[in-house]
Write a structure and sequence with these properties.
Blueprint: H1 4-13, E1 23-26, H2 38-42, E2 53-58, E3 74-84, H3 90-98, E4 116-122, H4 141-148, E5 150-159, H5 161-164, E6 173-176, H6 180-193, E7 197-202, H7 204-207, E8 224-229, H8 230-234, H9 253-271
Parallel strand pairs: 1-7, 3-4, 3-5, 5-8, 6-7
Antiparallel strand pairs: 2-4, 6-8
Helix pairs in contact: 3-9, 6-9
Length: 276
């Protein structure tokens, strides 16, 4: 009998090799975080929500009042645990992948379904890296509840080429997490879009293979984590506009090609998941 525990153990032990990507052993991604968890960060009296950091989310109503039927689970939640000024560009991608316009209401939204989303953002003019909490220590009660009620979780992150173990100047996305099917679909869609993608392994921060990683805290115990290099994220926004306040209104075609690739991969995955 295959249980959730044995499935997770098998996935974690297997080499993370994508159908169209290479295996990449990453170097250590971050030095020790200043805060051991989101809870510890929120408890710091020196920090003010809305000034130092912020949280944004959208949860869609699940309403099933049919007698004798089980309530439908949320299919997919998109998250950016290090948004705003921490890992630039991930907030905007989180909104777009979830089906919402990064520039706000009234702007053009991606065609297709919408998904639940959550993000934690650094709002400071500088020094936002101090607000980084590694994904295995992400214990925000709202995002944990959202992930636990979703079949799929897609987590967006930013990294440097050194952290990724890539050559200087590489514009690439590293695909990790325990959901092998979603990883495969993402690799295929990135290849079709002409976006360089590699399958990450090695350091947990990059590979996302720990069951404790927030991307894997789904109903199925598996999700996907995307780590975009600084160069790839910079190429998604107009020159001189790659700032927290300007990015949303200054996206380039690469941003939308990346968004479309991820959304297509999610739609392919959802099509394989009957929930009745």
């Amino acid at each position: 009998m295959i249980t959730r525990r044995t499935l997770i153990t098998a996935l974690a032990a297997a080499p993370a090799v994508g159908a169209l990507g290479t295996v990449l052993s990453a170097t250590t991604a971050h030095a020790a975080d200043l805060y051991a968890s989101n809870t510890a960060l929120y408890a710091d009296p020196a920090l003010v929500e809305g000034v130092d950091y912020g949280r944004r989310l959208r949860r869609h109503l699940v309403d099933d009042q049919e007698t004798g039927s089980a309530a439908l689970p949320v299919r997919t939640t998109v998250i950016a645990p290090h948004g705003g000024g921490i890992e630039g560009g991930t907030s905007e991608l989180c909104l777009a992948v979830a089906g919402y316009p990064p520039a706000g209401p009234g702007a053009a939204a991606p065609a297709g379904p919408v998904h639940d989303f959550w993000m934690f953002e650094g709002l400071r003019a500088s020094g936002n890296s101090a607000l980084h909490v590694t994904s295995t220590h992400c214990d925000d009660i709202t995002v944990r509840a959202m992930c636990a009620g979703s079949l799929n979780v897609l987590s967006l992150h930013g990294c440097t080429t050194a952290q990724a173990g890539l050559e200087n100047g590489a514009a690439a996305v590293l695909v990790g997490g325990l959901n092998g099917t979603l990883r495969q679909y993402l690799m295929e869609e990135f290849a079709a879009a002409g976006i360089r993608a590699v399958t990450a392994t090695g350091d947990e921060e990059i590979a996302g293979v720990s069951p404790e990683n927030i991307c894997n805290r789904s109903l199925l115990g598996a999700g996907a984590q995307l780590e975009l290099t600084t160069e790839l994220r910079a190429a998604m926004f107009a020159p001189g506009k790659n700032t927290r306040t300007d990015r949303a209104a200054n996206t380039l075609p690469l941003f939308w090609a990346f968004t479309a690739a991820v959304r297509t991969a999610l739609q392919r995955l959802e099509a394989t998941q009957p929930i009745r």
